From TrEMBL:
<dbReference type="InterPro" id="IPR000719">
    <property type="entry name" value="Prot_kinase_dom"/>
</dbReference>
<dbReference type="InterPro" id="IPR011009">
    <property type="entry name" value="Kinase-like_dom_sf"/>
</dbReference>
<dbReference type="InterPro" id="IPR051343">
    <property type="entry name" value="G-type_lectin_kinases/EP1-like"/>
</dbReference>
<keyword id="KW-0732">Signal</keyword>
<dbReference type="InterPro" id="IPR008266">
    <property type="entry name" value="Tyr_kinase_AS"/>
</dbReference>
<feature type="domain" description="Protein kinase">
    <location>
        <begin position="1"/>
        <end position="259"/>
    </location>
</feature>
<protein>
    <recommendedName>
        <fullName>Protein kinase domain-containing protein</fullName>
    </recommendedName>
</protein>
<dbReference type="GO" id="GO:0004672">
    <property type="term" value="F:protein kinase activity"/>
</dbReference>
<dbReference type="Pfam" id="PF00069">
    <property type="entry name" value="Pkinase"/>
</dbReference>
<dbReference type="GO" id="GO:0005524">
    <property type="term" value="F:ATP binding"/>
</dbReference>
């Protein structure tokens, strides 16, 4: 987690909410940030208009470890506002589900609509980019596996990111597109939660919008559980996943619940 601060004297407080509307971020004084970074002692990196320092601020049980200090005030107000907007607001439930659906449709294209079938092999939040309209784009095909027209599966070494890798990778089995379905299920749960902490409280705490659509929430969770089945043959294709998300296919209770 990073904290941004503009260059000010030690007694003046930074009030992000006063410069960016609709952003719920805690305000820290310059003095607090100076203490957290031991006087801006350890530099982690720098950019065109700011320097990032290592720091430690304990707030509500969270440890924030990076503080960005703007070096020039002259032309950086616009950039400062843009970055606060980028790291602060939580997307609405509708927008989160739209992002998840767009990722699913992207996988349908890779799995079924390309002239050469592509298994991405590394579907994670880090490899999902959002453009200016928050439209999702799948990126980073460095680990992707291309299947010949006469292939439905492939034998290859383990690829992917810890926590998103399907169990068949570890069994030395030939893999198919269902490995992407498994990874997508983890991403879907994280999009639902807006967090990598997949607890019941994380699903609904402070999210009145989700509380109002609990039936839809439960449906998305069931879809994710179908996709995360340990036995790959029980997982639906990503095309069927998209149909379930769109409501054109009924979502039944998963056969096996994860432990």
């Amino acid at each position: 987690m990073s904290i941004l601060c503009r260059r000010r004297n030690e007694t003046q407080k930074l009030h992000p909410e006063s410069i960016v509307t609709g952003v719920s971020l805690r305000s820290f004084s310059f003095k607090e940030l100076k203490k957290a970074t031991c006087g801006f002692k350890e530099k982690l990196g720098s950019g065109a208009f700011a320097t990032v320092y290592k720091g430690l601020v304990v707030s509500n049980g969270e440890k924030h470890k990076a503080v960005k200090r703007l070096d020039m005030v002259r032309d950086c107000e616009k950039e400062f506002k843009a970055e606060l907007n980028a790291i602060g607001p939580r997307p609405s439930w509708h927008r989160r589900m739209q992002i998840a659906l767009e990722v699913g449709k992207g996988l349908v294209y890779l799995h079924e609509e390309c002239s050469t079938q592509i298994i991405h092999c590394d579907i994670t939040p880090h490899n999902i980019l959002l453009d200016d309209t928050l439209t999702a784009r799948i990126s980073d095909f460095g680990l992707a596996k291309l299947l010949r027209s006469d292939q439905s599966r492939s034998s290859t070494g383990i690829r992917g990111t810890k926590g998103y890798v399907a169990p068949e990778w570890f069994r030395g089995m030939a893999i198919n597109t269902k490995v992407d379905v498994y990874s997508f299920s983890v991403v879907l749960l994280e999009i639902i939660c807006c967090s990598i902490t997949l607890s019941q409280d994380a699903l609904v705490e402070g999210d009145e919008e989700v509380m109002e659509v609990m039936e839809r929430l439960e449906k998305q969770i069931m879809i994710a559980i179908w996709c995360i089945q340990e036995e790959h043959s029980l997982r639906p294709t990503v095309k069927r996943v998209v149909q379930m998300m769109e409501g054109t296919v009924h979502v039944s209770a998963p056969l096996i619940l994860p432990c």
